Amino acid sequence: MSSITNIYTDPFILGLQQFPTPKVPEDAVVSYGYAKGMPSPMLGQTHSEETKRLIGLGWLGRTHTEESKQKMRRPKSEEAKRNMRNHIRPAERMENHRQRMLKDNPMDNPESVEKVRKTALNKKPCPHCGMMGNAGTLARHIKARHS
Ligand SMILES: [Zn+2]
After folding, report:
1. Could you please report the per-residue DSSP string of 31-79?
2. What is the 144 CA–ligand 1 centroid distance (Å)?
3. What is the pTM of this model?
4. I need a surface site. Which of 34, 129, 130, 135 has the fewest CB within 10 A?
């Protein structure tokens, strides 16, 4: 395979530059140059690293249309919609917590403090490697090291 190292003379890149950003219909499944349902011309083939780099360069400077940006902003599923509705901005969440702690902070109660202290001192071995830790540190440890 011949290798092209100059993007200014590469016929593939020059070809790309002759087309304006294509307006793709919302329900389009296929890309340009071959019909819906036909096997991809690249089927079973892969681009070389150099070609992939050049394809990437060919896309530089292209921008999304306002329509596709709007489309990207729309929730993708019912679940995403629910998540967006329930979302609280981190700053707001912090402020809510701060207000709650000013009103009735469990750490003002010696009984609660003692409970937290006992939980922190209750150390158990990690089931994967035996490292000793309390519930909080073990949960973090297992997430970081064993998953
Ligand atoms: Zn472990």
Report:
1. -TTS-TTSPPTTTT----HHHHHHHHHHHTT----HHHHHHHHS-SSHH
2. 9
3. 0.33
4. 130
**Residues in Cβ contact with 25 at an 8 Å cutoff, skipping those fewer than 6 apart:** none
pLDDT confidence bin for 68, thresholds 50/70/90? confident
Helix (H, G, I), strand (E, B) or coil at 1: coil
Q: How far apart are CA 42 and CA 45, in angstroms?
A: 5
> Read out DSSP for 67-111?
HHHHHHHS-SSHHHHHHHHH---HHHHHHHHHHHHHH--GGGSHH
* Gap from CA of 146 to ligand 1 centroid (Å): 6
Mean pLDDT across the chain: 79
Q: Report how far ligand 1's centroid is from the alpha carbon of 115 (Å).
A: 25
d(CA 103, CA 115): 20
Check: CB of residue 40 under 8 Å from CB of residue 29: no
Cα–ligand 1 centroid distance for 130 (angstroms): 6
